[in-house]
Structure formats: structure tokens, C-alpha cells
Amino acid sequence: MDLVIRDVRVVDGSGGPSYRADVGLAGGRIAAIRREGDRSLTGSHVLDAQGLALSPGFIDMHAHSDLALLRDPDHSAKAAQGVTLEVLGQDGLSYAPADDRTLDEVRRAITGWNGDGSDVGFDWRTVGEYLDRLDRNFGGRGIAVNAAYLVPQGTVRAYVMGWEDRPPTATELTRMKRLVAEGLEQGAVGMSSGLTYTPGMYARDAELTELCRVVAAHGGYYCPHHRSYGAGALAAYQEMVALTREAGCALHLAHATMNFGENEGRAPELLALLDEALAGGADITLDTYPYTPGCTTLVALLPSWASEGGPEAVLARLRDDATADRIRHHLEVTGSDGCHGVPVDWNTVEISGVTAPGLAGLTGRRLDGWATARRLLVEDRLGTTILQHVGHEENVRAIMRHRVHTGGSDGILQGTKPHPRAYGTFPHYLGHYARDLGVLSLEETVAHLTSRPAARLRLPDRGLVREGHRADLVLFDPATVAAGATFEAPRTLPSGIPHVLIDGRFVIRDGRRTDTLAGRAIRRTPVS
């Protein structure tokens, strides 16, 4: 063996009881497991587990590291949590497929998520080229953790139609379907949408259904940020269930929360809706992060009509007093579709990051009204990131218990004061919710974070501690594992996770990041 992990508590990802064993690794895979009492394994190196638990590497089903993986070889925000695979291309907006115009527009639209990318050479245009770039990054050494990719429907729409609020022509729909198919053929695992973000939100159900038929034909899944997490949230969930059932497509609900005052205590209604669909044969999973506040860009709160035409058109409307007042009315009185149909309570909106250096002093403050929000949007050129304090703890706990639940950080790494979920989601599940609160057992929690997402991604050799599986593994101390990240200190690394391996190589050893870049692009398994 290359490495023998001696006398470790194996939490194997299945949800079944843990057990003690020696685990041997060779050639980047789990070569042998010997139950307690069998000390026959020998190896070039031996690690005495000393009371640690061993689990499969955690899979972040909703990540925004699309550029972070290219610019940061360390990437401890995820590696130190035990994340060995991230799913990128989320919420319908990312950087492939695109032409020069679309790429420029998308870069500006999601600066608040990923930065403007001025430090990244955009030498790709297709999904396949982006995945290849991940593999040959940092002089061909690769990336910090593995990454899979979803074709972003909003980017596809912008590529074909621009940022217009109208149905596609037959020719445009055919072209969008072809782009989605090409992305899947080049290795994407599915398609995402951001249905409260422009231009993806301009797509009606018939258009989305046709795209989902393409996804289904290629064995992928549809991952929508659906049309509302506030007013009409249950109807929005039902819309996605019905749409994917019509298309015959697997459904994975992104950051499946029930937020705002309208939905306090209503998680059981969502879960009943999902149970009925599952009983009827639907293929559904979901992900959540274990926190109550959400995180997005400030511009995302605007009504959809205000964002038609792209970033420059938005700024022009904000500079016009009469149009800006119409926007204010939709935000504060009517309930903007960008704010989930709920009139905005500015006191719940906290500035988490800005791109203009002169505005840095506003980070951490709550907005005091539309005048400040408008000025910030214009002066920061739409790059402001916010926290929205609109969630409910009882909903968070109820949803994470569900049998189709998986973990996703939705971690935005930009800004002076990012959401702590970017650095803390997975240890927070293990420490706070499993150990401290007992919402789930340790074994069940690990299953939610490993084998369930691996099954959704159709990765037959990941997500379980099994002989022959990939040696993407985490060693953690169940008694001490905890998220270090807080809202006050959101970039603090976790405790109680001393070792993380990808492909059998240490990326975290004795609590420190090594210089190993073992991550690669994980391409969709072809339909057999």
C-alpha cells in the first residue's frame, strides 16, 4: 500500500453504522479495508488515526468557485472543509459557452459572485475548453479540488438572444438546445437556471421544458434556482417539479429554502409536495446550506424589467430619476420579482462586499433605504454583494432531514465580509447540527454530504469508502469538528479536520494545506 490509515472509525457514506478498520490506499484508490482485529495491511506510509473518523470527501453541490479555482492554488476555503469536489456553473450564469460579447456581459453581471476576472485569462469559449483549462491550470498541475460543471441556461440565452425579455424564435430555441447538448457532450453534468436572475428569468416554462428534454437525453439533471423563495415559493417549487416531469428530466433543487415572513414554519408543506412527487416516480434531490441568511448581489433584487438589456441598460435606468423611482416602487411596495415577490425590508439587507475601493467602509452595514441602495449600485457598477437575513431556523432543520437532501455551500468567496457558509458549511453540518443538536446522526449527515450527491452526479466510484473507489477522503475528529467561520470573521478556517486526501494524495495534512494540486475536471458519465 502507498498509505495505510490505521485503526480509524470508518463512516463510509452509506448511512449505515460506522466501524473500526485499517484502510489501505494504492494508486489513488481504496485498495483494501480490514475490519478491526485484522492487522494484515502494510504500506510505505502509515497514519495512526488516533480516534479520528474517516469518510468520503465531501461534495459541494452548489459552489461559486468558477474563477477561484483558476486564480487560487490554495483554495483552503473549500479544501480545509474536506470538500473534494465542487459543482460549478450555478444559478444559470457562468463563463461557458460564450462568445466575446456574451463573456464580457456575463463577467460584468456576476462580478459580485466571482470578481471581474481581470486576473484570469479567459482563453476558453466552450464548456469543453473551460474543463480543459481546469485540468491544465497552474502549468498543468491542475486545481485544488475536483470540479464538475453545469451548463448555465442564462448564459446560453444571453449568447443566442441577448438580454431581451421575449420568447425565442424557433431558430433561437434550436440554437439554444444545440448549445446545451454540446455542453453536455463536452462533459457538463447538467444544466442550471437562475429564474430570479436576468436573462434566465425571461424564459417561460415551454422554453425550459425543451431544454430539459435535451438534458434528459444526455443523462444529466436540471438544477434551477427557481422563480421565488418568498411569495409563491411553493408554487415555484411545484412549477419545477411539473416542468421536469413533463421533460422526463431529473431535478435537483438549488439551495432549497423557504424564506421571508410568508414562509415561516412552512417547510413541511414543501416536503409533502416533494414526497408526493417522489412517490409518483419523480427523480428529485435538493441541496441546502446550514444557515438562515441568504447571499446574492444587490442588483439581483431589482425587478426583471429594470435589468432587460444587460448591465449598461441597468445603470442607465438607475441614473434616470423617474425610472429609478419606478424601481423603488416595485422594490418597496409591489414586491419585485428579483426579491421573490416580497417588498424589500432594507434592514434585512447587509452589505457583504463591494468592488470599488472607495466604498469599502460600507461593508458590514445594513442598508437604510433606496437612496443608499441606488447610489451603491451606480458607484459600484452593480458589483455589490449582500446578505439577506430572511431565513427561518425551523425550516433549515426540517429540510436537511429529508432523505433526498444533499449539502451545498452556495459559497461566494468575494467581498470583505462574505457569508460564512463559503468557509464553514460542511464542518457546521458535522459539528453543530449532527453532534451538538442531534438533528441528524453522524452517519446520516455524512451520507447527505457524500454518497447522495455522488449518486446524483452519476459517479459510480466516489461517495463511499469502498474497495476500488477513488481515494478522495476526509479524516476528522467527531468530538471537535466545527466551523471556524462566523458572520463576524467569515474567512476563519474550520477545526477538527486534520487530513484531506484527493486521489490518495494529501491536500490537507496535519491541519495545513500542502502544495498538492490533485483536483481535475470531472466530466459527465455518458449514457450507456
From TrEMBL:
One Gene Ontology molecular-function label: hydrolase activity, acting on carbon-nitrogen (but not peptide) bonds, in cyclic amides
Matches recorded under SUPFAM superfamilies: Composite domain of metallo-dependent hydrolases, Metallo-dependent hydrolases
Transmembrane segments annotated in the record for this chain: none
Cited InterPro entries: Amidohydro_3, Metal-dep_hydrolase_composite, Metal_Hydrolase, Metallo-dep_Hydrolases_sf
Superkingdom field: Bacteria
Domain Amidohydrolase: 46-508
A Pfam family of this chain: Amidohydro_3
Gene Ontology cellular-component terms listed: cytosol
PANTHER family attached to this UniProt entry: COLLAPSIN RESPONSE MEDIATOR PROTEIN, HYDRANTOINASE/DIHYDROPYRIMIDINASE FAMILY MEMBER
Name used for this protein in its record: D-aminoacylase
Lineage: Bacteria, Bacillati, Actinomycetota, Actinomycetes, Kitasatosporales
